[in-house]
Task: structure prediction
Amino acid sequence: MSSWRLQYEWNDLESAAHHLKIGIEQSERIGNLLIQGDGLRTLSIVQQASGNPGAALATLKKADQLTESRQVAPSRASATLPATSGLHWRKRIWPRPGFGLSK
Result:
């Protein structure tokens, strides 16, 4: 099990986000766009779980931009994650009144 997932399951969301960001940075350095996109989608889940829908939406948009600009699709590995569909997650993440964000 990857480190971020274990931290996520233990509800250590800050540590999970940290590990995901390291993986995203490493994938950027080696040019692995597939892992980078999956990492961004997964990070958006952790950000949402942390109560930060604005950051989650921004991260998801980055993943979508990567997908569109490089024509990179989510991998089969991320198919088990609910964030593989940008539209699906935007509907769930989009700030709603009373969700801790000011109007």
